[in-house]
Amino acid sequence: MSFGGGAFAGGPVFGGLGGQGGQNLPFAGVPTELQERVDEILATEPDVADEAVDFSQAEYDRRPFTLGRFLAPHWVALLGALGLVVLETITLQAGPLLTKIAIDSGIRARSTQVLFAVAASYVVLIGLSMLISRARIVVTARVGADLMVRLRVRIFAHLQRLSLGFFTEEKSGVLFSRQTSDPVSLAALFQEGLVQLAVQALTLMIVTGLLVALNAWLATIVLLAVVPAMLLMTLWFRSASGPRYLDVRDRIADVLSHLQESLAGVRIVTAFNRRRHNVIEHRNVVGAYREANDATAQVNAVYGPGSEMIGILGQALLFLIGGRMVLRGELTVGDLAAFALYLTAFFAPIQQLVQLYTVYQQGTAAVVKLRELLAEGPTVGERTAAHPLPSIEGEIALENVTFSYQPGTPVLRDVDLRVRPGETFALVGATGSGTSTIAKLVARFYDPDSGVVRIDGQDLREVTFESLRTQLGIVPQEPFLFAGSLRDNVAFARPAATDDEVLAACDAVGIRELVDRLPYGIHTPVHERGVTLSAGERQLLALARAFVAEPRVLVLDEATSNLDLRTEALIEHALDVVLEGRTALIIAHRLATARRADRIATVHDGQIVEIGTHEDLVAQGGRYAEMFATWARHY
């Protein structure tokens, strides 16, 4: 199947393959003097694991995407990290107890030995805490990186399985956000959020237990005074910040979407002098993103200082009540000092949780957006009982087919059509008449609303995608070329094709002479989307790609519309050779291509109004004859 593609094959990048597209472009390759060093670095790169990824239409995880399912595959590592968190927290919270011992048994008792022992214990605990913390960070960083890789592969695989209709309705910039910023937010949620949440929650539990152990009555008074207030403020923060963080995710998607669209259309923007307008528009989009962030900042500005004020009031209450207890001899100075340190340690996690909740809200907002994306299923799916399509002869049949892109607005209505095996069949009609839609139905990019599309009598909904599309070649009106070598683009549908087969395809479409003039031949890189090539060169490469695929059925959707007369003549000659023995469905507005077909169907207002040879249709004096007469006057 022919859509574009290939991987970069090395070598310097030249401006193009000749023609208008390749003029005055700079050298962008690896200098010769650096190539040896580059090769050495590449030789040390680790091999990427070739894991089987299920991106099929028939089977994939349809369960809602949740944080629990996201983390579940790494539960062993998570338990290990949790164990390290427990040890780290215990070592960190031993300090106030040592302070109590230093005051009561060291300073008040004037015991230098106790002070030295406490100091040594501090050093040991700090060193132990550093080692445990390092181990915990290493473990969580590795798990976080693995989770991000798996998530991005899952998102990409899911996008590969979705149907064409999804991409016509969704902005590509929004999808970029799902693949880039959302996984980053989830990784931050895991590495900075969940792990730190465990640290701070465990700290709160341990500190609360120690406060009660030091003096249950004092702990009860202080905690009852501050915990309810903190709980109410946290509940308010949760309800106020949730919608705002979801809005932030939407606005960053808008920023990426506008950026992608502006870059993709940079030639049109420049040609129509819209650069200043685009900057203004982008400033507005970024301004909306800033306003969304300002809204979250305002909520944080209330919650942060408010929780800090509650902590200060708690400390004041402690010294008021605890100080009187020390004066009455009910509490030692060491106990009060340890109590004050633990109370500070009690509020420190709460302050930290304020920041963590920000990360949590960003992460959960990303979960919501990813859940929406991963819940999207293919509208054109492969049935569980689908069977492989046998080697086909190439008979195409549409039986009473009706189709609409939007409900209630049919593009095709009750279409009946039969293309014989090995026949070259052309579809002609005005723009919007439905000719290209028929090609999309034959390729099963869409399924008809009613009726059946068959190849060799097989309902396309009953066969596997792989068996269909390995026998079907598509050459679209706007061919897509990836950044890569000319060879990789031509051999995209059949990567195992030999260089000789690629060169033979170049011969067939009439660009062999051009390829032979290039310094690296078929291994010469082309730029992304083939921007350094002329429109005709891109179309020739797309045709060569289809020829290498050796399809039994070839669909050409306006494949000669962007060619000059000389290049069109080369293509027509190549088609005579390549289409021999194959079925060809040609969508054409240029009637020079259509008239060479064995039969021609005229499509008008979503229906086939006449079928016959070129001579027959001209003789009938119908719609095709009118179109041909109009075309002949201009050529």
What does this structure look like?
With 635 residues, the chain is α/β, with parallel strands linked by helices. The protein folds into two domains: 67-375, ABC transporter transmembrane region fold; 419-436 and 463-634, P-loop containing nucleotide triphosphate hydrolases (Rossmann fold, 3-Layer(aba) Sandwich). Helices cover 61% and strands 10% of the residues. A hairpin with a 2-residue loop joins strand 11 (599-604) and strand 12 (607-612). The longest helix is centred in the middle third of the chain and has 53 residues, at 275-327.
Descriptive keywords:
635 residues, alpha/beta, ABC transporter transmembrane region fold, Rossmann fold, 2 domains, six-stranded mixed sheet, 22 helices, 61% helix
According to DSSP, the number of beta strands is: 12
**What is the 3D form?**
elongated
Quickly count the domains.
Answer: 2
What is the third-level CATH name, the topology of the largest domain?
ABC transporter transmembrane region fold
Backbone CA Rg? 35 Å
Helix segment count? 22
Strand line-up in the sheet with most strands: 6-9-10-3-11-12
CATH class of the largest domain: Mainly Alpha
Let me know the average pLDDT.
Answer: 78
Give the DSSP E fraction (strand runs of 2 or more residues): 5-15%
Backbone structural class: alpha/beta
Report the uncertain regions. Answer: 1-29, 46-52
